[in-house]
Design goal:
By secondary structure, the protein is an all-alpha fold. The protein contains one helix and no strands. The radius of gyration is 19 Å and the shape is rod-shaped.
Length: 45
């Protein structure tokens, strides 16, 4: 698709953005789970 140095830079940037996106998804999923468990523990009585 893209060639040369600019293509390599674009591919590397895309890879980095995908990694950051996946980390963000994992973090938000973990936080939602953690807070739901905390809420259940805190207000179970």
């Amino acid at each position: 698709m893209l060639g040369g140095h600019l293509g390599e830079k674009a591919a590397e940037d895309l890879k980095q953005r995908i990694i950051e996106h996946v980390i963000g998804l994992c973090t938000s999923s973990y936080m939602a789970y953690y807070f739901s468990r905390f809420y259940d523990f805190r207000y179970s009585n």
